[in-house]
Design a protein that fits this description.
94 residues; globular; 4 helices; four-stranded antiparallel sheet; Alpha-Beta Plaits; alpha+beta
Length: 94
């Protein structure tokens, strides 16, 4: 499994949805699980992004599918970064 950091920004439609139904965030997490993606950590943040998510997925193809699916809804824009656990990083650079 691979780790990813997902930075997300809500669109106007997304903000409206969250205001009306804040638990929608958790519903989306369940949808991601059905795609084989596990949300490990999730934070609401202040600044240019609204949320920071640490997720785990089988590969880049699963992330691509997630990005297309969520992006097509028009409620969020995503920036996804591949993440390497620091212990793995250290092992690989030795």
């Amino acid at each position: 499994m691979a780790y990813y950091v997902v930075l997300s920004t809500l669109t106007d439609e997304g903000r409206k949805t969250i205001k009306e139904n804040p638990k929608r965030i958790l519903e989306v997490n369940k949808e991601l699980e059905k795609m084989g993606i596990k949300v490990k950590e999730q934070y609401a943040v202040l600044g240019p992004y609204d949320f920071v998510n640490i997720i785990e997925a089988a590969d880049n193809s699963a992330i691509m599918k997630m990005s297309v699916e969520l992006g097509a809804r028009g409620s969020v824009q995503l920036l996804t970064l591949a993440a390497i656990p620091i212990q793995d990083f250290i092992k690989k650079i030795k």
